[in-house]
Write a structure and sequence with these properties.
Length: 141
């Protein structure tokens, strides 16, 4: 088995459709990229959407927290760094940092509290070892 990816980097470029009335990146896209980067991190560690379907359980977001540090603008290339900071029996906390690639400026810090749930019932369920074993919780970058 290959080594697990502890900190995953997800790259995106701000497009015209993602710019809001204030002429910067719409806040919606930070949450979208939080989800997208988490999915890609999971895939990089061998856990795909098919894996979740097979075991009949997946992650539901319980809460999101974002602190904005600086705006992003049209054409900015963004690096989203994400990692698992806590993993428990039914919950996991994932953290994120958003950087502008051109100058390394920290644009935002964020976290999501995820709950592992049964797909059919929508109720919390114990995290399967085959999922938990694919992630290593780290405190910070």
């Amino acid at each position: 088995m290959s080594e697990l990816v502890k900190i995953f980097e997800y790259r995106v470029k701000v497009t015209k459709d993602e710019i809001d009335f204030n002429n910067h990146l719409n806040n919606f896209y930070y949450v979208k990229w939080m989800q997208d980067s988490g999915i890609e991190h999971s895939k990089a560690n061998g856990v795909t959407l098919e894996t979740y379907e097979k075991i009949g359980a997946t992650w539901f977001a319980k809460s999101h927290y974002i602190e904005y540090k600086a705006p992003a603008f049209l054409g900015d290339e963004i690096v989203v760094k994400t990692w698992i900071s806590e993993i428990g029996k039914i919950k996991s906390k994932r953290k994120y940092r958003f950087y502008r690639e051109s100058d390394g400026k920290l644009l935002a810090e964020a976290e999501t509290l995820w709950v592992f749930v049964n797909i059919k019932t929508g109720r919390p369920t114990p995290l399967k070892e085959e999922i938990a074993s694919k992630f290593i919780a780290i405190d910070d970058l």
